[in-house]
């Protein structure tokens, strides 16, 4: 779920999360409670409903939208063969179900924060719902872009079936070279747009890193902010990680004995290196930048199509670094 919702909750503000009930989710430690067996969605046809479940996670209420034919699958978005053919329908359904559930709760949210192409249509829906439903009149929307290269681009036919008004189909809206572009829709109709760093917020305005959307992003320039990615150190805490055989704190640079004895077959051992050894595991993707590692070992793309991973190591003889990235 990330670090942001618990952090906002700790500040005293009421916050909730809504997400699909993916079949792959493990919820054993957080019991689910059915709170709505028949939340009306009306998409892709009128009688369709969703089940809504609720759980608590670190002081945050989490709602889950269940519709097994959309979300009970082996992977979230795609397999090694490619994207699921009905992704556009799946995530339009989710956005509409989430908004219907918020409407049913009865209290208008002050801010709806969505992430990437999968939920970008929620901001588009709110933009047009404001015009005739006063419930949404004061709700603001924020879209966060993690990687502009993944846009959710589909046939124009799927726009015609989406339920969105015809006025959304224009070059400053949902339309992108004759296709239905979900991320572009969110960029066009969100009140604010954030990215994962101040530098990325500037880079995506350029043809080199704009992935074809630099035009609409330049038009929305005044509404774009770059906020540096954070980490939840209650979760990402090496001292509490039961999978680490040894902690390399304090004398980290003198623990070659641990590296050598804990190295498994097929994994590089760096005990022979003169000087220091810098190592890391990274993933590259279209639309991102990174430094070229000294040695690269590629693996196939992961299930989200954002591979390959890069495993790299580099030995140096210079002064010890005072920070790691």
Describe this structure in words.
The longest helix has 19 residues, at 87-105. Strand 7 (111-115), helix 4 (116-129) and strand 8 form a beta-alpha-beta unit. This protein has helices spanning 4-10, 68-71, 87-105, 116-129, 156-160, 182-189, 198-203, 214-219, 256-262, and strands at 16-20, 33-40, 49-57, 60-66, 78-79, 82-83, 111-115, 140-145, 153-154, 175-176, 179-181, 192-195, 224-226, 276-283, 297-298, 309-316. The radius of gyration is 23 Å and the shape is globular. By secondary structure, it is an alpha/beta fold. The two termini are 23 Å apart.
Tell me the series of helices and strands, N- to C-terminal.
HEEEEHEEHEHEEHEEHEHHEHEEE
Write down how many β-strands occur, each being a DSSP E stretch of 2 or more residues.
16
Rough outline: globular
Strand content: 15-25%
Task: Write a concise synopsis of the structure shown.
The chain is an alpha/beta fold and 325 residues long. Helices cover 23% and strands 23% of the residues. Strands 1-4-3-2 form a 4-stranded mixed beta sheet. A 4-stranded parallel beta sheet has the order 7-8-12-13.
């Amino acid at each position: 779920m990330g670090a942001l919702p618990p952090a906002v909750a700790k500040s005293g503000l009421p916050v909730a999360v809504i997400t699909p009930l993916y079949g792959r989710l493990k919820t054993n430690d957080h019991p689910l409670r059915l709170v709505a067996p028949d939340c009306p969605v009306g998409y892709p046809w009128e009688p369709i409903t969703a089940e809504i479940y609720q759980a608590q996670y670190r002081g945050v209420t989490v709602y889950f939208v269940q519709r097994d034919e959309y979300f009970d699958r082996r992977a979230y978005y795609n397999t090694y063969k490619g994207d699921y053919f009905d992704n556009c329908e799946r995530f339009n359904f989710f956005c509409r179900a989430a908004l219907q559930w918020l409407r049913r709760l009865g209290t208008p949210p002050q801010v709806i924060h969505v992430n990437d192409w999968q939920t970008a249509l929620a901001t588009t829906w709110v933009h047009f719902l404001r015009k005739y439903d006063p419930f949404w009149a004061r709700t603001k929307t924020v879209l966060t872009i993690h990687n502009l290269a993944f846009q959710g681009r589909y046939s124009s036919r799927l726009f015609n079936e989406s339920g969105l008004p015809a006025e959304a189909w224009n070059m400053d809206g949902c339309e992108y070279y004759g296709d239905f572009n979900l991320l572009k829709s969110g960029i066009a109709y969100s009140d604010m747009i954030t990215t994962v760093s101040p530098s990325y917020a500037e880079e995506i305005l350029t043809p080199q890193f704009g992935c074809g959307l630099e035009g609409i992003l330049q038009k929305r320039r005044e509404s774009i902010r770059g906020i540096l990615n954070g980490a939840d150190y209650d979760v990402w805490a090496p001292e509490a990680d039961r999978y680490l055989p040894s902690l390399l704190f304090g004398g980290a640079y003198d623990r070659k004995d641990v590296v050598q004895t804990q190295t498994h077959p097929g994994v590089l051992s760096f005990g022979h290196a003169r000087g220091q050894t810098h190592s890391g595991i990274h993933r590259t993707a279209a639309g991102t930048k990174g430094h070229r590692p000294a040695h690269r070992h590629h693996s196939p793309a992961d299930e989200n199509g954002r591979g390959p991973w890069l495993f790299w190591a580099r030995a140096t003889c210079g002064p010890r670094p005072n920070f790691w990235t």
